[in-house]
Amino acid sequence: MSSDTDHIEKVTSQDYEWGFVTDIEQEKLEPGLNEGVIRFISAKKGEPKPLLEWRLAAFEAWKTMEEPDWAKVGYPAIDYQSISYYAAPKNDDDRPKSLDEVDPELLETYEKLGIPLHERAALAGVAVDAVFDSVSVATTYKGKLEEMGIIFCSLSEAVREHPDLVLKYLGSVVPVRDNFFAALNSAVFSDGSFVYIPKGVRCPMELSTYFRINAADTGQFERTLIVADEGAHVSYLEGCTAPKRDENQLHAAVVELVALKDATIKYSTVQNWYPGDKDGKGGIFNFVTKRGLCKGDRSKISWTQVETGSAITWKYPSCVLKGDDSVGEFYSVALTNNHQQADTGTKMVHLGRNTRSTIVSKGISAGFAQNTYRGLVRIGKGARGARNHSQCDSLLMGSTCGAHTFPYIEVKNRHSEVEHEATTSRISEDQLFYLRQRGIKEEDAVNMIVNGFCKEVFRELPMEFAVEAQKLLEVSLEGAVG
Amino acid sequence: MNLLEIKGLEASVGGKPILHGLDLVVPMGEVHAIMGPNGSGKSTLSYVLAGKDGYEVTAGEVLYKGKNLLDLAPEERAAEGLFLAFQYPVAIPGVNNMYFLKAALNAQRKHNGEEELDAVDFMNLLDGKLELVGLDRDLLKRSVNDGFSGGEKKRNEILQMAVLEPTLSILDETDSGLDIDALKVIADGVNSLRAPDRSTLLITHYQRLLDYIVPDRVHVLARGRIIKSGDRHLALELEERGYAWLLEGSETGA
Fold first, then answer.
1. Fewest beta carbons less than 10 Å away: which of A155, A265, A395, B217?
2. Does the complex come out with an ipTM higher than 0.90?
3. CB distance A436–B84 less than 8 Å?
4. How far is CA A50 from CA A22, A53, A187, A324, in A?
């Protein structure tokens, strides 16, 4: 036992050593949002003055903005004054005391996904003595990255260690006034990741938030900034397949990507926040702004997402293709079951010459869920030779769910090509019968058909993620047919 | 021993009665052909036997290996060795043909308490079968029946049959729309599976297939029941005279 305690102590002190955690005082702000709150957050994090001013400007902007209502989702009004904007690290009193207090269905899902026992508690938000992340793994590879000049740390740390770099790019892709939720995030963002890949460097491994110990408590107003300098390559993974419990119902994250000349950024997400129970009670509202700027010529940004969680998803990972010959990609699987609602898609804004974009969206809807694809392809005046291909497929399971497709196409240049294909289908009885006639159980047959439907997206995911994503879809669809 | 015994089978599709008291016995080890005019209920019979949703049995019984077949789910029937080669095999986009075939075989093996085959053993097994049906290996890398030609789809059905080695194979007009070379391939596939512990039910429009697969018995299905049975010469007679002479004497079912 004592050796366990030693180990835990060692682990927790290591957190410190690497500066992953900014503040361990158990402090929590009373609910409400005003200038004082923002000053408090900024001071708490020891931020430089320009960043505080940036936050305050965002707050001023936010106060004048309206919450968007154009998405095809419905939810009760959010009272922004009832939210606490500084709660990290989480107070143990607010957490379930043990796994006994956690939704048994959530635990069952962990079981099915094969999540190790000790991780289940952390994922379910149970107060545990130490977060059992792979500290040793993190520390080993961090050294290796540093040797190559790669910066990968929490945004708070980056603000302290590399303020000029952060301030140069923060808000350069998603301006504070961009939209209501982005403005809110800019004012109060808690933490997130910062990545900088120097010129000509190819990041030797997939960067993943999983290895960032304190990532667990930054969910609510997460902010991520990734900069790939000229000729740099990076692949970044966000999220994990385990359904994650969070007491904060509103999530308004912002992710900004900047790719300079000849740089490539691949950003993969598996989003599986708590979707609420079968009757649509609880669940996360996920209002996310993700945008990448292909700033330099021949740069490339690729978004791949597998969205299965959250009660409401409002998310449009986008690419601004500014550099000539730059490339934007969006591959998405969005699955909604029970009473989940998703309004998701992308924006491809072509500004440079010969810019190319590809959109592949697969929406799967079951139960009483509503699943909407919303995508914009804009070809600017100067985007001579631009090309886009969009493909949006929807799969319906049962007769009480809905699938919707809203493609917006704006072309201001005659020397460009835009293609859009869309299909909506049901899982066909004939396909199911065919597979069952070959001895494959009905549930397995459904999974096989759904995975086949998503294949074009799954093959864009890094190998390990792809396997997990398949499994995740299976678990998320359980009971959807039959 | 009789592998399949159908007694007084009545079945409806969408409330419309199609089979009107069908009787049929297929002993173990025999190949039986079922012929009949359009709309006589041939495909309905094959779907009822395989257990497709929407094909409702209203009377009669079906014994398979001496047990009530109608109690079993479609996948259980399949695992018990009942195989239906479809007239119109459906495409399943994105599902790799080889992966599907392996999943099907292993589902059956699992059901029978046998060890599942790994990829290497499966490939070895497959090599011989591919040759048998004259299919290119590339077809295994594609999605199930997706973009296959008519002939490729039928050969793919026979490949599945060869791999699964069913106890009872039902071929639902597998010969329709095939050229003579493809027809021979199908026939070779079926003939190679002929064994004392296996039976085949050939549903066909034409006598042509029976030149290559010589049946032990031939049955005429019309107006939802078997109206005549005989040996292979019955097929030749039907080829010559058509069905009209048989239909005159038969009454319509209830």
1. B217
2. yes
3. no
4. 19, 5, 13, 33
The pLDDT tens digits of the residues spanning A122-158 come to 555 543 333 333 333 444 567 788 899 999 888 888 9
Distance from CA of A478 to the nearest CA of B (A): 18
C-alpha closest to that of B168 among B23, B38, B46: B46
Using the structure block, give the residue that is written with the tokens 């070959």. A438
User: Which of chain B's residues have a Cβ under 8 Å away from the Cβ of A455?
Assistant: 93-94
The alpha carbon of residue B94 is apart from the nearest alpha carbon of chain A, in Å, by 4
Q: Quote the pTM value.
A: 0.80
Q: What is the SS3 string spanning chain B?
A: CEEEEEEEEEEEECCEEEEEEEEEEEECCCEEEEECCCCCCHHHHHHHHHCCCCEEEEEEEEEECCEEHHHCCHHHHHHCCEEEECCCCCCEEEEEHHHHHHHHHHHHHHHCCCCCCCHHHHHHHHHHHHHHHCCCCHHHHCEECCCCCHHHHHHHHHHHHHHHCCCEEEEECCCCCCCHHHHHHHHHHHHHHCCCCCEEEEEECCCHHHHCCCCCEEEEEECCEEEEEECHHHHHHHHHHCCHHHHHHCCCCC
The residue ranges of chain B whose pLDDT is under 50 are 252-254
Q: Give the count of Cβ contacts less than 8 A between chain A and B.
A: 74
Closest CA to A55 of A187, A191, A252: A187
**Mutant choice from B52, B69, B88 vs A, greatest count of A C-beta within 10 A:** B52
